[in-house]
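Protocol step 4 of 6: structure prediction from sequence.
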Amino acid sequence: MYLSPRVSLLLLAVVPAILRAQEPAVPTTGAAALGEVAEGLGVSVRVLVIGAHPDDEDNRLLTWLTRGRHADVAYLSLTRGDGGQNLIGNELGEALGVVRTEELLAARRIDGAHQYFTRAYDFGFSKSAAEAFQHWPHDSVLKDVVTVVRAFRPHVIVSVFSGTPRDGHGQHQVAGIVAREAYDAAADTVRFPRAATAGLGPWTPLKFYRNRTYWGGEGATFRYNAGEYDPLLGMSYAEIAAESRSQHKSQGVGGLPRRGSVPGYVAREASRVNASTPATAERSIFDGIDTTWMRLDSLVTTPAEHAAIAELVSAVDAVHRTLSLFHPSTGVPALERARAALAALRSAAARAPRANPDVVPSVNDGLARVTQALLLARGIVVEATAERDEVAQGDSIPVQVTVYNRGNAPVTMAAAPLPASAARGSDGVAPAHTATVAPDSAGTTTVIVHGDALTRPWWLTMPRTGDLFGVPVNGESDDARDVGVRVRVVLDGGAIETDVPVVHRYGDPVRGAVERPLMVVPAIAVTLDRTVELARVNAPFDRTVRVHLRSAVTTARPVSVSLRLPSGLTADSASRTVTLPTFGAQATVTFRVRGTLTPGRHEIAAEARSGGETYTIGYVPIEYPHIRPQKLYRDAVVAVEAVDVTLPPQLNVAYVPGVGDNVAPMLQELGVPLTVIDPAHVASADLSRFTTVVIGTRAYASHPELVAANARLLRWVRDGGTMVVQYGQTEMTQPGIMPYPIELARPAARVTDENAPVRVLAPDSPLLTWPNRITAEDWRGWVQERSVYMPSTFDAHYTPILSMNDPGEPPNQGAILIARVGNGTYVYTTLALFRQLPAGNPGGARLFVNLLGAGSARHAGGRSSERGPARAIPAAPAAHRAGDRRPARALEPR
């Protein structure tokens, strides 16, 4: 079967899906996978796409390049999306960054690209590049991008963003700016010497493009069709891209795949190879670049290198002529010739007096692809399995390595554990345990794997410095970093080498075969329920502190647990001892802690002693069906913020949680009587016993059943109840959601400066005076942002309480709106209280308590500034706006 080469290259590295349920619809085995790899063997070219966040990627472009044109493609996201929101769970901040990193890697397993990041921590929304650069030192983030460029060595760079205010988000603007700067500076060893970029030398990208798909093709110089159908895969590239993009489930960006023509657009901004050719005359983004192996012929200098390239070109041609997908072994001789030629070229380049920086990465990419093709053509499958999915740090575990030979020729095998510090495909590991595997049979060997470093998100192994992660960027892609332990398998004396993740496999009655990565964990993991809690100042503190223990050792271990307490608190026991009988055993040790706390932050810490060792860390598993499991480590410490807060009398709250919503437990810690009601149960719940109903963030967007029951909630308010609704997005403008209408601008107004001055419009409002008087002190120490998705206009039934804005922008009065609805009270707030309470901010907690008592304040003598019906009031004040009719009193945090 002859396979005509298309202009491209595909790197299908040996990165098997960790969970069987995660395997994409794109074939990874069999004739279709082999045909796709073989078709791209004659092409060598690399493309780097640069954006700011995980879901900024242009999945159609990535898929069209990797699957359609077989380019070796990588996506560089400046951040891991830590500052975003979460539609599928409660993880926020660094924990959300772990989820979104794994979502990107799940997407990469579908579209076939690589994944890189910089050290930039997503600190939240920003409105300009200047604001973003206040969080990320310009030279630091640019250095990281240059490091990635020098490591991946792309011939073409595509920026998702323009680097102008048109991009909106300040982080988007930064991504567009540093993408072009890196294109210009990657070869500059004066500005960025090798020592500054992980020892990586200069690289000169050849072309620079900007994405124009998001602008509907405006200004584009090249148009491509992502809807092109691939008969080998049975899908178009746009369909594959839709599946890839749907992995961003935490962001809710999934959608239906499109069939038919799906155009995409890019605009050439710079070129070092065909600058004289008008950009609009290009027929490919690779115009001016030789994408075949013959490109390297002009870059090498020794006869041995030229001979290896000539043999490689001949061998690839032979693969295309001889390979039959019905009888894959027909292509093995030519594939082995190609592998030998690539190995010879790598060896010759290593001996050459001056190797061109394009040669080694191209050869390594080619070897990975040929290795994949050989495994597929010979019918070889390699697995490494362990009897459990965890091994204690400092312990060891036997791993069974199995080679299934479903081909027609024998194969020899050897295996060895791979050090945790070794990169995939690195040298320096000497496999042993050699065996021969006959055709249509399996061979096994056992290697002993030692638990060295803990398996954890690698970028979290050091604390952040400001809004930059502490672990330097070394140029290794995240898709080359397995979650768990690996072994190296060598076939036919070195003809084929592959690194295989070690997994624990078991059968699930519903899911079938499940595979989990082998992870290194503490011998005894120690975890507390939370990292931050709230308490009331000088009120009786009487709580049960639960210390959760988990054993990863295979023998019984007695464990002694104790607490370290702040002044003012005592425990009912100095220590307690339990026995964990075997691997996986868990126990919860409880202490009753009582006393009182003075204002401020205090720490309660736990430690466990066993076998002469002290353990003070544990982990929280992060597991969703669409991503690989991860473990987020944390110290066994809880910070208790003692807040000077008074609760409204006779308060009884029903809390309907939203997305990424961790507010309810924080209110309960303050002593608020609170019942959590599932959104699906609002229609039938008995609301008569509650004084206040709270709706969590974006609850209407994520729970249609809540929307259906909203009329019942509004009737309950009219009958005298108090309803506090936290921010939503455009769903809040739909009729029937709020009692009176609001409007949001596009994009919606927000105050991203967490220290922005706050002006009081209604100083006598009980929301600011009862039962807690809100002062300037309550606006200090806020995290990430003040307010989000603020109304641009709102009905005059609402009374605005506050006015605020980012520097250089007009004031907005939409942070807190209150209205009388029948006999009840309705409060809508866009303040980022969903971030403040879980962070332990005392001012946010005091204000939230006041909102809960908004309705009862009238009966307690609190003065109200609510008005009756009038005309609509713009929320962003200009001259003589109604919201400015009385003087505003500034509360500016110092």
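Step 5 (inspection) to follow. The two ends are 74 Å apart (CA to CA).
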